[in-house]
Give the backbone structure.
Amino acid sequence: MYLLIKNGRVVDPSSGTDETLDVLIKDGRVEAVDKKLEAKGAEVLDATGLIVAPGFMDMHVHLREPGYERKETIATGLAAALAGGFTGVCCMPNTDPVNDSASVTRFILDRARAVSPVRVYPIGAITKESKGEELAPYAELREAGVRALSDDGKPVVKASVMRRAMEYAGSLGLLVIDHCEDPDLAGEGSMHEGTVSVRLGLKGIPAEAEVIPIRRDISLARLTGQRVHIAHVSTRLGVEAIRAAKKKRLPVTAEATPHHFTLTDEAVLGFDTNAKMNPPLRGKDDVDAVIEGLADGTLDAIVTDHAPHAYEEKMVEFDRAPNGIIGLQTAVPLALDRLVKTDRISLKRMVDAFSCAPARLLGLTDKGKIAPGVEADLTLFSLRKETRLKAEDIKSLSKNTPFLGMKLKGAVVAVVIAGRVYPAR
Amino acid sequence: MNWRHKHLLGIEGLAPEEITLVLDTADKMAEVATRPVKKVPALRAKLVVNLFFENSTRTRSSFEIAEKRLSADTLNFSASTSSVSKGESLVDTILNIERMMPDCYVMRHPSPGAGQLISGFTKASIVNAGDGAHEHPTQALLDAMTIRQRKGGFKGLKVLIAGDIAHSRVVRSNIHLLNTMGAKVTVCGPATLLPPHIESLGVTASTEFEEAIKGKDVVMMLRIQLERQKRGLFPSLMEYYQRYGLTEERLKLAAKDVIVMHPGPMNRGVEIASEVADGPYSVILDQVENGVSVRMAVLYLLLGGGEDVSAH
Amino acid sequence: MKRKTILDAAGIQRTLGRLALELAERLQGCEGVVLIGIHRRGVPLARRIADKLSEVEKVQVPVGSLDINLYRDDFSSAGTAPVLRGTQVDFDIEGRTVVLVDDVLFTGRTIRAALDALVDLGRPARVQLAVLVDRGHRELPVQADYVGLSLNTRREDHVELHLTEFDGEDALLLETQITAKEGRP
């Protein structure tokens, strides 16, 4: 079984490749990447005018199953991932039950394999039931397939617990991902503390509620010598703290979401609950800092923080609404339109942030690259084609997005997983 | 100048002429209260639903009197006695009442933007009677009516609003209104009750009451809620009174013809001394009276549409 | 649209003079009489009639103004709420003879509303109505006691009174719709 992808612009930051090449795939693995490849009887995919990149991986997704199937199921979440150009996703453990055991991890993996070609890498909980007290059984989780740990949705409040988590996880080669928020300082805030919150009379969450735990985690990385990955960085203060830590060669990495490089707190002005997230949408300067952080690699990966919520959950008073938006089907077009088209980051860096960086962080050595012998997971996209997401195009069970109807330059055309082509629809 | 808004959700965004129209209309409404028959048929057969998700005897009574003076039918709906206590969502509550064909909702709700939320689910007009710490437009309008009665206008007027600025909807509506009408607003309170970025609304902020009150034409005191002290926002009610209480002594620092206002309910001996509250500069009870006129005006402007028959 | 001047400034002056004389004659010295003009144009007309009465009869008749917008019967949600002019009646109408003054008597609905507004102010001994123009087409059983001018109109015509107080001139105008036959040769 041969698949030949012809005349695509192959962009693979892992090898520094950026030229028009053919990719030959045999039995689900890359056979050759070169000019003018031929293969008798091969299925040919004409990729003229398209970018061919190593498969994109979203390392921060909430699939909601088990427990919250009103919001999303593994099947619908992965359908959204596939339509959005992702060949792999990491799902956060804040399900019901929390993914703090091998049985939940296996359930997710079994279910995912049954319903979708998209590769799923479950993230285990840092603490049992994500309560911030006792460590989850990391070795058991690793055995079941877990590569990273997080209590996402909640911070690990106690520094002692975080220290032990980093020490123990580090010894097992697991990445610890922290949702950095000082819950006491954030209080009952439902949006960014700034000129908009004061106008709307909504309680604010100051940028410091993010940077204080980021600084703590950086200190713990120094103390333990182990890695820590900062989830969804939203503030200039946060970006600068991480940049300084990286300069000192501390093992700190980070990620940012499309909504944090696209929208400001002004999106809250009409009290649209689809503008309510945690961390909240910040000010213009923070948005610029996030983009600068992505450009210079301070923020390693772009992740969606895809957070589905049912219609009735979001159709409530702003301060009572749950946090988060869906993002799988808009992430790539938003990055192309807001970052690449505007020259704020290079195409190469964008591909790196979606593909190579997540693979590196999770230790997936045969992912995030297009090289002979690796599994053929690819994302094909166009810089010229437009994306305009309509409600009926949403594959997710929930429709909570502020990006509906937005015209974006750039579109996912197809993904290839293990040599099979899945056109984006 | 005619009224062109379907709802009154806030003062922000109203033009000076629109504010003046409400105040002019309220002045006319005040006359109704002086008649032997204090009732006009203007809103006969209109159904006004008073939806109060927070306790408020004062605002609610004021609206009810306004509705009755305009001959509207009223339905009182309070959260504690309704399906809301059984977990019904706000939107579902509205969808249900909607089938009773109301013409207007007067809503008090603890969440900012609650009015904006329900506006997508009703054909009726909405009057925001206070949404969290966001806006309380009729309060600002009745304050403005009172100021205009005493001062003749707003241009260049120096206004001090003092107290719990952070949690006050009254303050936001008043800032928008007074700025729109050309007054200069200073807000004052302990640093913990002055929200960060408050200056972005176009006011001067100060923590020093005796500095802030100097030369002011209007001094508006806000209610201090006891639970703020319990949450550690200031050390004690006594210390609050010592630093921010409006005493006769401090009032002397204001302009000679200063007026003292308070949206009520007052805490005597916390934010205001009794001698000041009951003293010659106080217009606090005028505010209460004007509340009815302003609410009549707002309801009339929102619901009193129709052909102008004054030409025949 | 055709526009015709029915009365010029002098004509209005004369008509008001006649109205005042008629009032004085029928009300015999104007003892206990008050004039209440209906907003907007009835108000200056009431004042002018009062001035004439003080010239001719040497009596000062109290003048008030009545805003009937809160008493209208055309409840519809269309359009915006009419601007209130305010009711100002600074005297007691209890037991008095109230003469309501309006510019144009048409459907009678304004007068119906005015009567409702009036009874909320007190209980007059009797109420009369003086109008500058009666243009017909009544929809309610209302008639004027004093009519300056009776005018034959079609229902769709517009009768417009201009007064110096509002319009910079005194004139009574009749606007007729030009029918298709007349308008298009």
Chain C has five helices and eight strands. The mean pLDDT of chain C is 90.
